[in-house]
Design a protein that fits this description.
This protein is about 50% helix and about 5% strand. By secondary structure, it is mainly α. A hairpin with a 4-residue loop joins strand 3 (about 180-185) and strand 4. Helix 8 (about 200-215) packs across helix 9.
């Protein structure tokens, strides 16, 4: 590599361009260099000079030192709800955001032990191997592992994070992609990123259950551009989501016959699932046939349209907690001061707040946050932090550091 700073990681530039949705030409104009120079930085043929690096860091809004950090092993290729080529740039951006979430989790893992991964293990190598019975069994096993029984899941986000999944929910500006998930090899745990652009708690819960289905059923499978294979995997994740959120025995037993939109609307708030998803679940269980399903959807469209249902405002989207509370814990215990989080992780305050669910301006000390509890005084600071850690589901060992 020719002149410039020492240790520049070209992969970080590639990642930054993707995360910000910038082209080489746009970045070059903003930094004040030629597109050819940016191309050389990306390929590793040349490193930026100190002044150019400062400009680059300011444009991307990361610490200059971040561009010298080695890139961890990439996550498995995530599956996306939309496989259209028109969404290629959007997928690249979201993959980069997921990699940044992995970076945050890796940095925090220097101080804490996240909950152990607690998901059913399946060894399918091809979606054609998976039957409807396999999907129902996996959903039932997941409920058993989490001690949920056959009741409605009160807070799916909390349950997923308690099972060791790193969950991110942020506004992406990409309404066509509701979420994505992948397995992190370096964390040895899965990550899920959900879009918060549509403030619909029912859809968000189903999206999360859908991603959970991918993580369990399709772990280790290659992402395919074949539309037929892609649809099969999407249908399987949908089936899992329905089976997990609406267990066959208890849900079907509550449904009146004949099935009507109004009778399902009565169940919507308690189960936390849309009427449309309930119709599909009843069809999957054989409670209603194709004609009945089609008629219900026609009536739904005529009465409510296709994008919304009555009662959608009755459930707010579930919030993520694990990464947010970990940072709050480390800050309140003095392990990692609030004003040192950004420098430690390397990303901007805003990116960290968005990816962890922290209040806006929390890391700059200007957030409007009301603390209702504080750590109890104790002779041992370790003991007090451990008590606090139990409340957020993390264990803080003080024999590790960075």
């Amino acid at each position: 590599m020719s002149r410039g700073i020492t240790g520049f990681e070209p992969g970080r530039l590639v990642q930054a361009l993707a995360a910000r949705g910038l082209s080489q030409v746009a970045l070059a104009s903003m930094v004040g260099v030629s597109p050819a120079t940016v191309s050389k930085w990306k390929s590793g043929q040349q490193s930026p000079e100190a002044e150019a690096l400062a400009n680059l860091s300011q444009v991307i809004n990361v610490a200059p030192e971040w561009f010298t950090r080695p890139i961890p092993e990439k996550c498995s290729l995530p599956l996306f709800r939309s496989n259209a080529s028109a969404h290629a740039n959007a997928r690249i951006m979201l993959e980069a955001r997921l990699e940044w979430a992995q970076d945050i989790a890796l940095a925090l893992e220097e101080f804490v032990d996240f909950p152990e991964v607690n998901l059913p293990e399946r060894k399918f190598t091809d979606p054609e191997q998976i039957t409807s019975a396999d999907i129902e069994e996996a959903a039932d096993e997941c409920r058993e592992l989490w001690g949920l029984g056959r009741r409605a899941v009160p807070d799916l986000a909390m349950a997923v994070e308690g099972a060791g999944v790193i969950l991110v929910r942020e506004e992406t500006g990409i309404a066509t992609i509701e979420g994505l998930s992948a397995w992190s090899h370096v964390l040895n745990r899965p990550l899920v990123l959900l879009s918060s652009d549509k403030q619909n708690g029912f859809r968000s819960r189903f999206d999360l259950a859908h991603e959970l289905g991918h993580l369990i059923l399709h772990k280790g499978m290659e992402r395919s551009t074949d539309p037929v294979r892609h649809k099969v995997m999407e249908d399987q994740a949908h089936r899992f989501a329905g089976a997990f959120l609406l267990p066959a025995e208890t849900f079907a037993a509550e449904v009146r016959s004949p099935v009507t939109l109004d009778s399902l609307l009565l169940l919507k708030q308690r189960w936390g699932v849309s009427v449309a998803a309930m119709v599909m679940r009843l069809w999957a269980l054989g409670v209603i046939d194709d004609d009945a399903k089609g008629l219900l959807f026609k009536r739904r469209s005529a009465r409510w349209g296709v994008k919304a249902e009555p009662g959608d405002e009755g459930r707010a989207p579930e919030q993520t907690r694990l990464l947010r509370r970990t940072i709050e814990l480390l800050a309140s215990s003095g392990v990692l001061p609030v004003n040192g989080v950004s420098a430690y992780i390397g990303l901007s305050n805003t990116d960290i707040e968005m990816l962890t669910g922290l209040p806006l301006r929390y890391l700059s000390g200007n957030a409007e946050v009301v603390h209702f509890a504080k750590l109890k005084s104790a002779s041992s600071p370790t003991a007090s932090v451990k008590r606090a850690a139990e409340e957020v589901g993390v264990v803080v060992p003080f024999n590790r550091g960075r």
